[in-house]
Amino acid sequence: MLIDRFDFEKSIKTNEALHVDSDAELINEKYEKGTSRVVTEMGSYKVAHIKTIFADSNYDLHPDYQRRITWNNAKRSKLIESLIINIPIPPVFLYEYDYDKYEIMDGLQRISTIIDFYNDEFTLRGLEEWSELNGKKYSKLPEKIKEGIDRRQIQYITLLKESATTDKRADTIKRLVFERLNTGGVKLLGQEIRNAIFNGPANKVCVELSKDERFRALWGIPNPEEFDDDLDLDEIEDRIRKETNDKIVKKLEKHALYKRMYDVELVLRFFAMRHLEEYNYGLSAFLDDTLISMNQYTSEQLSQMSELFLKSIGNATELFGDYAFKIFDGENWSTPSKMIYDPMMLALSSFTINTDIIIDLDKNVEKLKSFYEIHRQDELFDGKHQSKEDISKRLEAINEFLSELNYE
User: Fold this and answer.
1) Within 13 Å of residue 126, how many CA atoms lie on the same side as its CB?
2) In the chain, count of helices (H) and strands (E)?
3) Burial class (CB in 10 A: 0-12, 13-18, 19+), 154
4) How many CA atoms lie within 13 A of 120 on its CB side?
5) How do beta strands 92-98 and 101-106 pair?
6) Exposure check for the chain: N or C terminus, fewer CB within 10 A?
7) 223, 216 in Cβ contact below 8 A?
């Protein structure tokens, strides 16, 4: 099934790995030249000075690529308790994006926690070794405890600008670092890494499109106004305990979709699947390559791509409401599914609603239910098969269904 693409939509080019010659002499030469070596600088910050250091304009505390996960007060308190006990803390990783200008690659939560603590912005809670300090802010701590925290140090490792002579090399270095870092036991996921190292104009478009209210509604993602990046999750938990409201519980559970940037990845998937015939390797790498290619588009071209995405989301909402990306299993509707989202969005991107027909949402949903009932026999939508061929077959089936829907 051919997919209508804009003339400017270039083929997705695979980023080939650096060529490695098996000749030992050439390998030695490569090592001696340092072409695959990161230049770093190490040091340490006195905890008491961190607030002042990172207030300097040379430090970017909030680069676009920082992930959305935020620590709650219990976790932040554990870090402060570690400082009191003098338990070693993992180093902070900085990236020198220009001479003497730095971004925090890894460690933003640690740095932010320390700054917030010195600003008296949260109270300690859940401490075990120092339980007598629970409920206290920094200003209310005994002097000896404050002095003990003040004299602690946090190590930092800076990836210097000399590590990369080109933007492409800088991207490679960032990927190497991000793939190997694991902060607080929460491993960076695909889109979080993409957001860090391929953070060009196309990535910003994906982030903006992920905020579309219709898109959020179809995937059950709470609006940022309800659960924004700075909201203390402890406060949400308290609300849940007080109100025992199932809707709030569900919103909190689904908030993970937003926290780990799956929502942005879903937008990128739409653009990637427009090159379905080239999807011959791993999905994560395919999404990487799609974003790299799209970062080369002009602002006008990206605007056209955005309009296409919004048109598809609009069609989905208008035709099927909340059921657009769900599947009926014979008894119940599922939660939104990527298995349906991919072919449905592709089909809707080239679909024009017949304005001569009055849309009956309830009737359309019943037809959609019957559509899935018919295909239960051929197992087309059983979720077990996710190859390029399977997506193509689903796309053909949905295209045919939409065509019939449009003229009944």
Assistant:
1) 12
2) 17, 7
3) buried
4) 5
5) antiparallel
6) C
7) yes
d(CA 353, CA 319) in angstroms, rounded, equals 9
379 bridge partner residues: none
Query: Is residue 338 within 8 Å of 262, Cβ to Cβ?
Result: no
Beta bridge partners of 187: 182
The residues facing 41 across adjacent strands are 158
Q: Which two tokens stand for residue 310?
A: 């919004």
Model-level pTM greater than 0.70?
no
- The one-letter code for the residue type at 160 is L
Q: Hey, is 320 helix, strand or coil?
A: helix
Distance from C-alpha of 52 to C-alpha of 55, rounded to nearest angstrom: 5
Q: Under a CB-based contact definition with an 8 Å cutoff, are residues 187 and 284 in contact? A: no
- The span from the CA of 227 to the CA of 214, in Å, is 17
Distance CA 167, CA 97 (A): 10
Token output for 218:
């179809």
Q: How far does CA 109 lie from the centroid of its chain?
A: 17
Report long-range pairs for 34-37 (Cβ below 8 Å, ≥24 apart).
Answer: 37/163
- Mean pLDDT, 10 residues at a time, the chain of 408 residues: 77 52 52 62 92 89 60 89 91 86 85 93 91 93 93 90 70 66 54 69 91 91 55 45 46 53 89 90 86 90 95 95 91 90 93 82 92 84 78 91 76
Phi-psi region of 178 (alpha: psi -120 to 50; beta: other; left: phi over 0): alpha
CA distance 401 to 12: 29
What's 282's DSSP letter? -
